[in-house]
Amino acid sequence: MVEKKSDLLVVTKAKELCLYIMTVTQKSPKQFRFTFVSRLQNLSLDVIEKLFYANDLFISKEQVKNAEKRLALQHEAQTSLKLIAYIAELAMTEKCILFKQFEQIAKLTTDCRRLLGAWINSDKKRFSS
Q: Cα–Cα distance between 44 and 84 in angstroms, integer?
């Protein structure tokens, strides 16, 4: 996995989640390829994309629009993480993935959501003063 020292911890965790999803869904039954598998894979890639875009926005006190864009991207990533957790649960129920794989996806999505929430709160504090 390509990881830069400058990556935010939430980005590193999102990459870990994406890699895990890509790995476990390779062994999923073919009947789920265009439902659970593609949704989980695409959503995990979307999370990374949104985090990259959010992190690349230059923000100063005068650039309120960029701060609003960043917050919107962060919230979209949060929503995608919630969807990943739900679809993984449904995939486990339908025997697309194993229970232990669902547990790991749930743990990684929770970690990402916690770190992303901390980033959002940090930005809010930084830009509200």
A: 7
Look up the domain containing 90 and give its range: 9-22+35-128
Residue 68 lies in a domain: yes
Residue 1 within any structural domain of the chain: no
For 48-86, write each residue's pLDDT tens digit.
Answer: 999 999 999 887 766 778 888 999 999 999 999 999 999
The CA distance from 115 to 109, in Å, is 10
DSSP 57: -
Distance CA 33, CA 72 (A): 30
Structure tokens at 107: 């743990």
- CATH code assigned at 99: 1.20.1440.60
Angle of CA points 121, 18, 80, to nearest 5°: 50
Length of the chain: 129
Is 105 inside any structural domain? yes
What is the pTM (predicted TM-score) of this model?
Answer: 0.90
